[in-house]
Amino acid sequence: MQIERTDSKNLVVNGLPDGSRVIVDSENEKVYALNATAGAAWDACIGQTTLSKVAEDMRRIGDPSITDEIAQQAVLELQEKELVKTSGLFPKASRRAVLAGLGAVALPLVVSMTMGEQRALASEARSTVDPSDGRCGDRPTAHVSHTSDVRL
Amino acid sequence: MSSLNQDLHDARNCRETVHQAPARSYASGEHCFGVCLFGFAIYVEAPSLEVMELLDRCVFPSIPRTDIASSSADLCLRVAQDAHEFRLYRDDCFVASAPRADQLMRDLIDCLDRGFVEGVRNLSAVHAGAVLLGDRALLFPGASHSGKSSLVAELLRQGAICYSDEYALIDSEGLVHAYPRPLLLRNGGREQTAVLPFELNASVASSPAKVGWIISLQYEAEGSWNIQEVSQGQGLLSLLQNTPHVLADSPHIVGSFRRAAAGARCFEGQRGDWSDAVSRIMQLALVA
Hints:
The complex is a heterodimer of chains A (152) and B (288).
Chain A: E1 2-5, E2 11-15, E3 21-25, E4 30-34, H1 36-44, H2 51-61, H3 68-80, E5 84-87, H4 95-100, E6 110-114, H5 115-123, E7 150-151
Antiparallel strand pairs in A: 1-5, 2-3, 3-4, 4-6
Chain B: H1 3-15, E1 32-37, E2 40-45, H2 49-58, E3 65-66, E4 75-81, E5 86-90, E6 93-98, H3 105-119, E7 123-133, E8 136-141, H4 148-157, E9 161-164, E10 167-171, E11 176-177, E12 183-186, E13 192-195, E14 210-219, E15 226-230, H5 232-241, H6 253-261, E16 265-271, H7 274-287
Helix pairs in contact in B: 4-7, 5-6
């Protein structure tokens, strides 16, 4: 089986001290947060590689106790988020085998958000509702903000 | 164009439309003050001393007043009065009117928040409660009505120092600065009360601090405290999910937030009663 990162020319990878990563993909307008385990897998997926090589590299650059099953789970997470692509079939790893390999290693986790979602959240990132929305081009009509009075 | 930039564009355009503020019926500048926060200059004008005192309480009350001409200000907030009502203008754009001036203060604070976040340079805002515990800042980013203000108020009562109940301002080094407008505390309904930190026996932080904790809490009315530690990457993501800046237009915010998250322990989860949450948060901070 071959594993490699998907072709995206505009990835900005932000590393954090705990080993996690935040990847901004401006081409596909997505942001990904990878925990330390997924981050180690991402680091291990440089160039074309294999699952056993990924696991080996993850142990070398990350936690030595990372099992092959954890590495596989990490690659699956990255694949699901379209950060890596694979050819061939994964060996079947049972959930029990994955969990057994956890120990002090966290389950690989990739959380994503689209730029569109971020834009929508940005417009709501305040506690108040602008009464006029700044649209003075509309005819100004007198009103009292009944929704949220302030007592001083 | 970003939503913030679009709003700014709209606001600028509106000055050129017919909806200009009416001629003032009082001596210009008779009741006015200026205040400058992080290089962002605000000019405030009122029709009377009584209204002036209201505005003085709402617009960064802990920051010294200074002389700023309305023409050179980044933001002009003006309350005018005629025989029937008070009117609020932002940069000569009509915003709202009401029979009593105090009924406009919520709108005024809204204008202040939006104007500042749109216009301030070199700082990135996160919609978050923020206090100083020891020498580290605690941030709890969250949506409106998630209880940020109540948590901040109670943490202040417990000895924390105030950064804000609305915005944590983060500089390019990832340090948190105070956004010193009054806390707005709900009384269980829609009404909010403007409360100054000193009224809770607390002070406003006078210097920036590194972030010690980022705690993203969902409020569950019947829920109990249930949080888990998450990666700093997820902490950074929670800052991106709660900033008013659009990432596509302001990609530099990732760097600022990365530096902020880089020294923090990050948590996500739910809280129930705010008093329980405050004691849990204090325990968390004491353990660290």
